[in-house]
């Protein structure tokens, strides 16, 4: 039993029924806490009873490394899945966190766009792979959440993620150009809606690297809340040294230091994501 299980026993009442909820963590800007949020939100969801798969679509593979997956253990990766040489289940690796798995990535992903060329289904490779995975699992062993860690660009990998997802979760750093980057991302979401995935929604925006002592941080949060309203999560991820240190040890921050402010924030975010899911399912017409 891990330290997380000691503190947070599985609560099956939190688990959502039916097919997994697929969320793409996307922002074309790097350094906003996207991969960090994928790792730690996934860990927090697993800690409170969800069965989570992280799909690493970033050629840098930082989500895989941050969960302690050695590059030598990535003989089958998301690259092999997207070029059609392996089913998604073959790329899945069990992590040290109970109920959390990851489909790891390698640098081979950086050449995917050239590899697929003009293939007609190239934007739907991930959608089809996840669909096949869902159809080949036994009841009770399926995932309740799939989190897709996108690269920091709006390329074919990100398009695959958006085409496969129910919703987008946007990590947004508390910095001056935050709204500009968000506007670009929202335009891309609209393009994907109109051509590839009409049901795609914005699940929420999580403000990262927040420093309450910093006037700019507070102003950015106020501006984003004014622009996006209730789409902004109440939970904000603080600037926290433990969050920064944890990846170098191949651990989520909840495993590295469960009691730190960063861990507590991600647990709150996980609870908020689950509650938002319940609200969406209770009123599906209001999900967009």
Describe this protein with a few key phrases.
288 residues; alpha/beta; Rossmann fold; 8-stranded mixed β-sheet; 13 helices; 42% helix
Protein architecture, described:
The protein is 42% helix and 16% strand. Residues 6-16 have low confidence and may be disordered. Strand 7, helix 10 (215-228) and strand 8 form a beta-alpha-beta unit. Helix 7 (125-135) runs parallel beside helix 8. The protein has 13 helices and eight strands. The radius of gyration is 18 Å and the shape is globular. An eight-stranded mixed sheet has the order 3-4-2-5-1-6-7-8, sandwiched between helices. The chain has one domain: 3-Layer(aba) Sandwich (Rossmann fold), CATH 3.40.50. With 288 residues, the protein is an alpha/beta fold. The chain has helices spanning 3-7, 34-47, 62-66, 78-82, 88-91, 112-116, 125-135, 156-164, 178-195, 215-228, 241-245, 253-256, 261-282; strands spanning 21-25, 52-56, 92-94, 100-103, 145-149, 167-173, 201-210, 232-238.
pLDDT under 50 segments (min length 5)?
6-16
**Number of β-strand runs:** 8
Compute the gyration radius: what is it? 18 Å
Sheet with most strands: 8 strands, mixed
On the 0-100 scale, what is the average pLDDT?
A: 89
- Dominant shape: globular
- Terminal CA distance reads 39 Å
What percent of residues are in strands? 15-25%
Strand order of the largest sheet: 3-4-2-5-1-6-7-8
Class by helix and strand content?
Answer: alpha/beta
Q: Can you name the CATH architecture?
A: 3-Layer(aba) Sandwich
CATH class, named Alpha Beta
What is the number of helical segments per DSSP (H or I, 4+ residues)? 13
Write the CATH fold name.
Answer: Rossmann fold
Number of domains: 1
* CATH homologous superfamily placement: P-loop containing nucleotide triphosphate hydrolases
Assign a percent range to the helix content.
Answer: 40-55%
């Amino acid at each position: 039993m891990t330290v997380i299980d000691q503190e947070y026993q599985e609560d099956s009442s939190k688990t959502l029924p039916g097919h997994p909820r697929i969320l793409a963590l996307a922002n074309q800007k790097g350094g906003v806490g996207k991969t960090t949020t994928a790792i730690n939100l996934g860990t927090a969801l697993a800690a409170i009873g969800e069965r989570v798969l992280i799909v690493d679509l970033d050629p840098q593979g930082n989500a895989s490394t941050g969960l302690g997956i050695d590059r030598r253990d990535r003989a089958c990766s998301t690259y092999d899945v997207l070029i059609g040489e392996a089913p998604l289940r073959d790329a899945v690796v069990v992590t040290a966190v109970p109920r959390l798995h990851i489909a790891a990535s390698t640098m081979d992903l950086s050449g995917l766009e050239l590899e697929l060329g003009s293939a007609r289904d190239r934007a739907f490779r991930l959608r089809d792979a996840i669909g096949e995975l869902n159809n080949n699992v036994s009841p009770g062993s399926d995932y309740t959440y799939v989190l897709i860690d996108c690269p920091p660009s709006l390329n074919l990998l990100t398009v695959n993620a958006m085409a496969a997802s129910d919703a987008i979760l946007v990590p947004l750093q508390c910095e001056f150009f935050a709204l500009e980057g968000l506007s670009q991302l929202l335009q891309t979401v609209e393009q994907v809606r109109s051509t590839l995935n009409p049901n795609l929604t914005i699940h929420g925006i999580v403000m990262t690297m927040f420093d309450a002592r910093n006037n700019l941080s507070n102003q950015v949060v106020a501006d984003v809340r004014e622009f996006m309203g209730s789409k902004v999560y109440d939970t904000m991820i603080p600037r926290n040294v433990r969050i920064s240190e944890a990846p170098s040890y191949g651990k989520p921050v909840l495993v590295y230091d469960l009691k730190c402010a960063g861990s507590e924030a991600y647990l709150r975010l996980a609870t908020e994501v689950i509650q938002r899911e319940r609200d969406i399912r209770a009123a599906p017409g209001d999900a967009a």
